[in-house]
Write a structure and sequence with these properties.
214 residues, binds glutathione, transferase, Glutathione-S-Trfase_C_sf, Glutaredoxin, Glutathione S-transferase Yfyf (Class Pi), Chain A, domain 2, 2 domains, 8 helices, Glutathione S-transferase, alpha+beta, Gtt2-like_N, 52% helix
Length: 214
């Protein structure tokens, strides 16, 4: 299999942690996509992922999978028991729900703030450059507030259970963890009162897969 990505970016990191959790590194070749040079917006890359984002997984039969959730689900079910997306109906439902909340309230909200209210990845890659949309800066800042509310929400969750979707580490934890990495990159601080979130982050950061992603 092949993964098209760029090391160190939040979404690629999610999948690199998954690969380490599932011990699949020896079966995957990484192909670097030059994001700063906008390679992911060129026709060759858009042909494999029309949304123009990384990571993309290419299966051995040539099928392309994009979206971290879809890639995680595929890798988690590839062999043996799924460990990141749940085994029982209840686990699967809870993980899916919390994963969706983590994408919506952290990663996606921070992405909107980063791309619209800051210089993002640079002028060449700043989306929606139309001058009449300049008030999107305000829209971006609203999403910074949304991300902070998201941190407070996950802090409340983690006061009552060890992991984001319950008793076990799951895909939802990886998404929240990557969300906090992205928040740091976008200079959105975790509110001081979010002590359960900070303690959970320190615990998750000690996992071998997180310390040494693929
Ligand atoms: N929903 C997508 C989001 C992927 C994503 O936004 N990746 C970022 C890198 S962390 C990217 O490719 N950004 C480039 C851009 O938006 O121009 C997923 O889950 O894979």
């Amino acid at each position: 299999m092949k993964i098209y990505d760029i090391p160190g970016f939040p979404s690629p990191l999610r999948i690199r942690v998954v690969i380490a959790e599932k011990a699949l590194a020896s079966r995957i070749e990484f192909i670097k996509v030059d994001l700063p040079a906008a390679e992911h917006k060129q026709s060759a890359f858009l042909a494999i992922n029309p949304t123009g984002t990384v990571p993309v997984l290419q299966l051995d039969d040539g099928t392309y999978l994009s979206e971290c959730t879809a890639i995680t689900e595929y890798l988690d079910n590839l062999e043996g028991n799924p460990t990141l997306t749940g085994t029982t109906a209840k686990e699967k439902g809870l993980i899916h729900m919390m994963q969706k909340r983590a994408d919506d309230q952290l990663i996606d909200a921070i992405g909107i703030y980063f791309h619209h209210a800051t210089d993002g990845l640079g002028a060449q890659l700043k989306p929606y450059k139309k001058p009449e949309w300049s008030d999107r800066t305000v829209w971006g800042q609203m999403h910074r507030d949304k991300a902070i509310s998201g941190m407070k929400y996950f802090d409340e969750v983690l006061k009552t259970q060890p992991y984001v979707a319950g008793d076990q580490f799951s895909m939802a934890d990886i998404t929240v963890w990557a969300g906090l990495i992205f928040a740091g990159f976008a200079q959105i601080a975790i509110p001081q009162e979010c002590t359960a979130l900070v303690a959970w982050n320190a615990k998750v950061s000690e996992r071998p897969s997180v310390k040494n992603p693929a």
